[in-house]
Every structure is written in structure tokens, then in C-alpha cells.
Design a protein that fits this description.
Blueprint (H helix, E strand, L loop, with lengths): L1 E6 L8 H16 L4 E6 L10 H8 L7
Length: about 70
Amino acid sequence: MKILHLDSSPLGDASASRRLTASIVETLHRDAPDAQVFHRDLAAAPPAHLSGAVMKARTSKQPHDL
């Protein structure tokens, strides 16, 4: 089993949702000790947002596609 634990609250230790998700992940991991837990803190390391230029470059035809 793989568990993806996402946090996004900027409140850190004061966040009720962080405490709740930590409790849920702890219970899941206790019930499945072989589970891999992947934790991502989106407040601490937000993902890069896609710009219009990046999306245009990704969807435009490349010379090898013609």
C-alpha cells in the first residue's frame, strides 16, 4: 500500500487539518506497517504554477511531430 499524505495549511502546528491527517495516516500505517508513506507539504514547498507560455509550448507541434 502507498499512502500520499498532503498538507496545505499555512498554519503549521496550529492547523486542525494537519493534526487530523497526521492521525489518519498514523492509523493507516499502524494497520499496514509495510505501507509506504509519501508526505508533501504544499504550504512549505508549493508546486510551480503553469503559465500560458508553458502550456502553449507543451501543446504546440514540435518539428518531429509534423
